[in-house]
Amino acid sequence: MTQWHDVGEPDDFPDQGIWPVRIAGVEVAVFRLGDELHALHDQCTHGMARLSDGYVEDGCVECPLHQGLFDIRTGEPRCAPVTQAVQCFPVRVVAGRVEVAA
């Protein structure tokens, strides 16, 4: 069963930034793209690197280890060497609080 976890207020997440959080024992990277909030598993599927240590550009996060790109909205790979999607988590804002489902 999916549970929603409070991770902060919308203003806690800077535009084009990455915020690492731990939810139910899972490392998650929360991203803000304009008015949209997204969450991905905080580990590259290609190597043992944290996406929260990466860079955001054009709606993608670049892995800091091998520069592979993941689409922040879907988790899909956009550039070699990554070929496998990273897990994407639902995000919502309720009563001024950001919640991530895990």
TrEMBL record:
<keyword id="KW-0001">2Fe-2S</keyword>
<protein>
    <submittedName>
        <fullName>Anthranilate 1,2-dioxygenase ferredoxin subunit</fullName>
    </submittedName>
</protein>
<keyword id="KW-0479">Metal-binding</keyword>
<keyword id="KW-0411">Iron-sulfur</keyword>
<dbReference type="InterPro" id="IPR036922">
    <property type="entry name" value="Rieske_2Fe-2S_sf"/>
</dbReference>
<keyword id="KW-0408">Iron</keyword>
<dbReference type="Pfam" id="PF00355">
    <property type="entry name" value="Rieske"/>
</dbReference>
<comment type="similarity">
    <text>Belongs to the bacterial ring-hydroxylating dioxygenase ferredoxin component family.</text>
</comment>
<dbReference type="InterPro" id="IPR017941">
    <property type="entry name" value="Rieske_2Fe-2S"/>
</dbReference>
<feature type="domain" description="Rieske">
    <location>
        <begin position="4"/>
        <end position="100"/>
    </location>
</feature>
